[in-house]
């Protein structure tokens, strides 16, 4: 499938992707096509509706699941969470099956929703930011940065301060994409001093690619 930059202003390629979206039964392919078409300015509500519907399904999935790992003071994973064994037994899943479902199969809709640049997704992104699923929360932070809606900054800062896992890094990095000095200062606050290289690397990405640094393709 053509990448977004190849589709831009190429009406024939756009029409081809729209036809693939209509015909395919592959949900991830449909999400990818919908996300790219929206991000390049194709205005068709069916693409938004599809992405939003898939993201809502993911957000509603297994909120009773404990965090897979225990995090240290630097907000990085340190050990497997023993409570997870109980959860896996309850759902009759091995740890690795659970990891596949929780970290890849469920959140994939959020990768593409976050890149769509669709203002309709703003409220849903805020809900995703509060998700106990680290990947969903991280993707939502990226999506809010892509939207560049200044209303997101205070909520991202507030949730980032309460977050005790790796999503905190992604919220901090996403704040760097806002020009608001408050967002820039909060990014520094949220990352432990010894991890500041993460912010330096993100600043370089922002300078080199802008919002395109957050796109999943």
Protein model, in words:
- It is a single chain.
- With 217 residues, the protein is mainly alpha-helical.
- The protein has a domain at 106-214.
- It contains 13 helices and two strands; from the N terminus they run ααααββααααααααα.
- The chain has helices at 4-7, 11-23, 27-39, 45-59, 83-90, 95-105, 108-115, 122-129, 134-147, 152-162, 167-175, 181-190, 196-209, and strands spanning 69-71, 77-80.
- The protein has a two-stranded antiparallel sheet with strand order 1-2.
- Strand 1 and strand 2 form a beta hairpin.
- Helix 2 (11-23) packs antiparallel against helix 3, helix 4 (45-59) runs antiparallel to helix 7 (108-115) and helix 10 (152-162) runs parallel beside helix 12.
- The longest helix is centred in the N-terminal third of the chain and has 15 residues, at 45-59.
Overall spatial form? globular
- Regions with little confidence, pLDDT below 50 for 5+ residues: 1-7
Helix content: 55-70%
Helices and strands, in order, run as HHHHEEHHHHHHHHH
Order of strands, main sheet, comes to: 1-2
Describe the main β-sheet briefly. Answer: 2 strands, antiparallel
Determine Rg (CA atoms, Å): 18 Å
- Number of H/I helices: 13
Q: Please give the alpha-carbon distance between the first and last residues.
A: 11 Å
How much of the sequence is in beta strands?
Answer: under 5%
Overall pLDDT, averaged?
A: 85
Assign the structural class, choosing from mainly alpha, mainly beta, alpha/beta, alpha+beta, or little secondary structure.
mainly alpha
Total E-strand runs: 2
């Amino acid at each position: 499938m053509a990448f977004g930059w190849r589709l831009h202003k190429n009406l024939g390629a756009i029409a081809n992707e729209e036809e693939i979206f209509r015909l395919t039964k592959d949900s991830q392919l449909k999400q990818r096509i919908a996300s790219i078409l929206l991000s390049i300015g194709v205005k068709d509500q069916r693409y938004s509706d599809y992405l939003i519907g898939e993201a809502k399904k993911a957000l509603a999935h297994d909120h009773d699941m404990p965090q897979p790992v225990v995090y240290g003071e630097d907000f990085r994973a340190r050990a497997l969470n023993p409570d997870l064994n109980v959860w896996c037994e309850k759902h009759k899943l091995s740890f690795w099956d659970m990891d596949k479902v929780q970290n890849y199969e469920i959140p994939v809709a959020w990768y593409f929703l976050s890149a769509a640049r669709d203002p309709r997704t703003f409220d849903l992104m805020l809900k995703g930011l509060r998700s106990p699923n680290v990947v969903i929360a991280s993707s939502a932070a990226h999506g809010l940065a892509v939207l560049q809606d200044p209303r997101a900054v205070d909520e991202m800062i507030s949730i980032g301060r309460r977050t005790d896992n790796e999503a905190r890094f992604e919220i901090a990095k996403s704040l760097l994409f806002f020009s608001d000095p408050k967002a820039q200062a909060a990014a520094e606050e949220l990352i432990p001093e010894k991890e500041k290289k993460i912010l330096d690397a993100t600043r370089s990405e922002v300078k080199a690619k802008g919002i395109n640094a957050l796109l999943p393709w």
